[in-house]
């Protein structure tokens, strides 16, 4: 039996390239990865950029909060491979027309970027994408705002806790899926599980045919899936 579960690269391919780097995304696409998960914030002048943390300290040669820099200012800082902080526009140019599933995470749980959903959805709608984007967030309000702006897109709540009635919750909140840190069985809601790097855990999830796993090492996950 071949598992139908898709494999998404968590922040690209962090085992080989800086996380959330264009180099990592480009490599993954060249290797025909199923999907990419990436994180989006807004600069001070409302330009979407791709990074995990709210501050640039850990992943660039600079310091400070993304929200305190203009796009021109933040572009002076580089990732460990020398590339500037990627913009969403650059990322969309890279993936345009490519058969890759996208999971765009609104990073609005620690700092809320006013207007991020409208700006990002506008850019997505202008891009030639092969598959609908799955928008995820730990902040349910971002998903509600996204759904209000464009109900045709997919919205999935990132949960690190068990939800009592996952299907009822998803229906009430207009969610297409739940992205789970801890797996719980559902049947009508898409289940994408993060961040899974252990071969035994991957095997179990592929056996269960979850909708997707989100992993730091897509090549390892692909080997495991091929053997299921
Ligand atoms: O989407 C799964 C995962 O990316 C959520 O956590 O902190 O890695 O963005 P985090
Ligand atoms: Mg993320």
From TrEMBL:
Residues 5-225 form the GP-PDE domain. It comes from the Bacteria. It holds the Pfam family GDPD. InterPro entries: GP_PDE_dom, PLC-like_Pdiesterase_TIM-brl. PROSITE patterns: GP_PDE (PS51704). Transmembrane segments: none annotated. Gene3D superfamilies: Phosphatidylinositol (PI) phosphodiesterase. Signal peptide: none annotated. This is Glycerophosphodiester phosphodiesterase.
